[in-house]
Design brief:
The chain is built from ten helices and eleven strands. It is α/β, with parallel strands linked by helices. The strands form two sheets. Strands 5, 6, 7, 8, 9, 10 and 11 form a seven-stranded mixed sheet that branches. A hairpin with a 5-residue loop joins strand 7 and strand 8. The longest helix has 27 residues.
Length: 329
């Protein structure tokens, strides 16, 4: 994941959470967090509990997210002035009197008259976080997106139509699940399968995510539209997708698993031979410790060399797509 990808991801993240962009450049972005983003990112549960109990106006934090720390350092270096700047003459008053101060030495403000010296300006400190690949803040954003984006419900936006068109658009409902398949032994291969089933007809499509990239989607149901009723329940749809994925993975060439099993058996024999030799020459009080070491080493070999296929769900969603048919009102 390069800097451009990270920049695009962070900007989309801030936009999705309705954060206010105060300043941005290719090297960084300064944003005032929305209440939702502040709750997720700043770890201030007591503050937000106080705001919710008292109804006080919330004051969210402002952060500077740095995409390119090296470029940021170069931009932060002070530049020499090209020409001298003529200073404004000091305000009229007694000599050695600070500006903004009354002749008697007190602060020339309402608070100063009652409480003495009051600072006229307080520099706000803006926290700065690197969002390079592997950084804590970027990983936090990934986790938020992973949790919040596990399931979506979207509608395809219709093409602009003439005012005289009176037919309502018909939408089919597709249930899509993105699976991660890992074929692991002492090496690992990961695959992503995007499968979808139409809840009206039962048709199943592969690579559905790529198909969705060509669509314009919205969380709002378009006006003058009709959604066909579902004939397949979600539990049945999940079973159908899982069976499809199982058949697809079963058709793979699994010679890699046979080779991994041979390697696994060879490693077990080697470790057992080594520890059996230690047990023959060990003192009685040392046997328990040696046997425990042997069991732990065998568990490590199982984890490292034993072939296995694991399937996890990345995310899923319901997508209402234009069926290409019209429904008369």
């Amino acid at each position: 994941m390069n800097k451009r990808n990270i920049h695009t991801f962070v900007m989309r993240f801030l936009e999705a959470y309705n954060c206010t962009i105060l300043e941005k450049s290719p090297a960084y972005v300064t944003a005032k967090l929305s209440p939702e983003a502040d709750k997720e990112m700043t770890g201030r549960p007591y503050y937000w509990s106080f705001v919710e109990r008292t109804g006080a106006p919330a004051e969210t934090m402002t952060y500077k997210f740095v995409f390119d720390p090296e470029q940021m350092k170069l931009e932060a270096k002070p530049k020499p002035a090209a020409t001298a700047v003529k200073q404004a003459p000091p305000p009229a008053g007694p000599p050695n009197q600070p500006a903004g101060q009354a002749p008697d030495g007190s602060s020339d403000s309402i608070l100063g008259r009652y409480f003495g010296f009051v600072p006229t300006a307080i520099a706000a400190r803006v926290p700065q976080d690197d969002v390079t690949f592997g950084s804590r803040r970027l990983e936090q954003m990934f986790n938020i997106v992973r949790e919040r984006g596990r399931f979506v419900h979207l509608f395809e936006e219709p093409f602009p139509m003439g005012a005289t068109y009176q037919a309502a658009l018909v939408y089919d409902t597709w249930f899509c699940v993105n699976y991660k398949v890992e074929l692991a032994c002492d090496r690992k291969r990961s695959e992503i399968h995007s499968l979808a089933i139409q809840l009206n007809s039962g048709e199943i499509r592969e690579h559905f995510h790529k198909h969705l990239l060509t669509k314009s989607l919205s969380p709002k149901l378009p006006a003058n539209s009709h959604i066909l009723p579902d004939t397949i329940s979600l539990p049945r749809a999940i079973n159908a997708l899982e069976e499809t994925l199982e058949r697809k993975v079963s058709a793979y060439d699994h010679s890699w698993a046979d080779e991994a099993n041979e390697q696994h058996r060879s490693e077990i024999d080697r470790v057992e031979s080594y520890y059996n030799g230690l047990l023959l020459n060990a003192e009685p009080e040392q046997r328990d410790e040696i046997e425990m070491q042997c069991r732990n080493r065998l568990k490590e070999i199982d984890w490292q060399h034993k072939p296995r296929i694991t399937v996890t769900v990345i995310n899923g969603g319901l997508f209402h797509l234009n069926a290409g048919r019209s429904h008369r009102n």
